Amino acid sequence: MKHCNKNNHLGRISSHRKSMLMNMSNSLIIKKQIITTLSKAKSLKKYIEPIITKSKNNNIQSKRMVFRYLKNKKTVSILFKKNFDILRKRMGGYTRIIKISPRLGDYSKMALIELIGFNKINNNNNNNNK
Known about the structure:
about 130 residues; alpha+beta; CATH 3.90.1030.10; globular
């Protein structure tokens, strides 16, 4: 039976899955958006949203807690800088998943996952409307 199996295992062992999600979250924080499969994007959303919530408190303990998940000093310092105040003001829902056309090779569902507030197109439209 499949009771209480909430997380998607993605066909990987736990250590590989954790390192994959860690690397994808580092890339998402640095680049602000990445393209991946839909199932990986959904798993990444469940992984990164609590990390961003923990980064709202700018103290040593929260930095250590975030470093436990990301294991990259550069990414942690980027996450605690001023330009991430856009995400700190939000109550939740820091990421957006947009479905895009399937991959040509194996026709798997693809998605673009991005951090809300860093989209250049939406920010330019909001600035022009003011």
